[in-house]
Structure formats: C-alpha cells, structure tokens
Amino acid sequence: MADTIAMFSRWVKSGLSGLLDGSSSSSSSVEPTQDNALDEFQRIMRMLPRIEAVLEDAEEKEIQDKSVKLWISELRLLAYDIDDVIDEYEYDDEQVEGHNTLASSSSQVRAISNGMVEKLREIREIFDEIERDRKGLRLREEDGMRRTVSAQNSRLTSSLVDKSSIIGRKSEKVKIVKLLLSDSESNNSIQVINKITVIPMVGMGGLGKTTLAQLIYNDPIICQYFDLRLWIYVSDDFDLMKLTKEIYRSITNKQCEEGIGFNYLHDSINKELMKFKRAFFVLDDVWNEKQCLWESLKVPFHNAGIVNILLTTRNEKVADVMRTMNYFCLSFLSKDEGWQLFKQYALCGDENLMRIGQKFVNKCGGLPLAIKLLGSHLRFERDEDKCMSILESELWDLDSGIDEIFPALKLSYQRMPIHLKPCFRYCSLFPKKQIPDKNHLVWL
After folding, report:
1. Is the model's pLDDT at 191 over the cut of 80?
2. Coiled-coil intervals in this record (predicted)?
C-alpha cells in the first residue's frame, strides 16, 4: 500500500489539482465557463487516463486500509463521471457533424456545452472535495501497511489424502491415470517434447482439482509405474529459485545450503533425474502465465528418462503455456455425488432436515467446497427455521463462509487482468443464474 500512497503523495506534492487545469496551481483558480469549455474538456480528457492508472495500481496492490479504500472509491466514481462527460461530448459532436453544421469548432463547443459547463464545474468541485478529504485523512507515504497474507497463503497442500472421504471423481481419475501410464513413444495422442508430458487439469476454485491430483498421485499403479514421484505446491507466486530449491530438496532429501547457486541446483537436479527411468511430478495450484519461467524451470528435466507432469490450475492460459496435450477440464459433481458428499458432512438423520438438505445441494450446483461448507453448518443444527435461514443466505454471509468460500473465489478475481475486472463487476448486475447473451452484453 505504501507504494500507492507514495504515488498519491507525489500527485499532491506536484499539484494533484493540476490534472484539471494542466498546471500546479489550485484547481479552483480557473472556473469552468462557456468561453473555456473546450480547454476544460481537454483537461479532463488528459486527467482520466492518469486517474485510471492510479486506480489500476491500487487494484493490483489490494489495499486494505478502509480510509484509503474509501478515498479510492470516490476517485473511481469521479473517473466514471469524467467518462460520462467525454461520452456525451463525443455523442453531441457526432450529432453536429451528422447535421453538417457549418459553425466553427469553438461555436460548436458553445452550442453543445450549455449543460456541460455545469457538469465540468461539478467535476471540479468533486475533485476539490476529494483533495480536501485526502488532507483531512492526512494520508502520507508511510501511512498504513499493506496486508501481505492473501488467500493462497492460507492454503498449503501435500500429497497425502484421506481416500475414505472422497466422493466421485472415479471416471476422471481413470482417464488421467491411463494417460500417465501410456508410454510416450507409443501414444500418438500425446505430443511429446523431449520426453516431457504435461497434463493440465483446469477448473474453478473449490472444484476438487487438488483432491483428484492427490488420488492420482497415491494410486498404487502410479506408485509402481514411476521410479520417482514429487509433489510441489506452486501457488500464486511462481518464484523460480524457490521452486527449483523445492525440487532439489524433494529429490535429494537435502537442505539447500545458504548462497547456493541456480546453476548448481539445475546441474544437481539434472544428474539426479538421470538415475530414474520414469518420473512423475504434480505441480499443484499453478498461476504462472510466462513461458520463459516455465521453460527455465523444466530445463533439468530434459535429460531424464520419461517425465510426466500433472498440473492443477484455474487458468486456461496457464494450461496453454505449459501443456504438451489438450488440458483436462474438471466438471462439477453430479447431483447424486453432491448428495453423498453433503450427507457425509451433515451427519443428520432427521427426515425433514434431509429434505432441506436436497435444496442445499441444489444451491451449491455441484461445487464440492460449497457442499462441504453448507453440510458442516447443518451438522449440529436441528431447527428447520434456522436451516432455512442458512439456505436463503449467501455463502459468504455464513460464519465461516467468508473464511472458506470467499478467499477461494476472490483469488481468481485478483488474478484476472485489470481490463476484465470492470466487465466482471458489471455482470453482477444481472439476476442470479441468468446468463446474458454475449452479443447483448457487448452492446450494453
């Protein structure tokens, strides 16, 4: 957050109000009038991309301080107002051109900006108010600390799994295991690159990708077929050095010495892998979209015998970067599977409550994480009214919903490209379960 505050502070020190008047003087020194309407309009056009740049930076930083978030929210609303004024001006200008108006450019502005002068004045006043609020809040470069603990940091995974608690995924497991057991040289459906086969498993958060990968990793046939198996939890931060060290430790069972070099790690991994005929890696929760980082990570794998890699990701672009074959899209649980999972967590024998439980499962739409959460809430609940209250609430309105469901979904939003986030937020205006027509959505 300090970086964002520093940017805000630099704006103020150099005359943040100059975004409106193009100088470091006070924003109220030039009052918008009909005579200078065109100048004012050009100034706010220059101002908009600068505000948007700060808003994008704030979005990336994931600021937690409420006072700063409120300030940013007001700045965003101002950007919307400016965007509306620009749209209105451009529309009026097109109308003027369409009627072949012979007036001069300046007279056109006067003609179409009778109401716009007042809007420019309102923008100016709002901007001044935002500036006063910033001073009132006394936002400084050193104010606050950005929270560094994000959704992915609270979730670590390992290869261990309780098989008795898993519902479904049998057919998916069989398909992926079959791919992993197929010798690369004889399987024409797999495009082999230097004996490295990468099978991406793609699906939304909470769908059970990690659980399925754990089942596959511990399958007796997989254990017998591969001489070496490694489980690497990758997470949002694709730290090349950190991941290389983790691979080195997993293969050699040795801790990395202080100051160990990247070249030494690569060379050591390369030599170790040459001892094995078949190696199987699971890279869990991958977010990296940079081809160069992936290419660098897998350099030591090329001299091994056969290396099969199963990776889990929510992002199809990640799968495209790393895959050597078509990725495997994980689907939602069926209604029967969802019901079995729900009963496993609800542990309730009351017939009336179980009928409500069916509605719970339908609400979750086959998402395992949601089914587990709602089932756990019903575990010790015997009051039908309270059960219905839980059923009618949002998942993140529940006591633990914000801690379990929301972070899993929020991480996907955080990793979404900046230019898509407003589109995503816009879609929240539509009623639940209503999928708008793509062309209609674009038109809107």
Report:
1. no
2. none
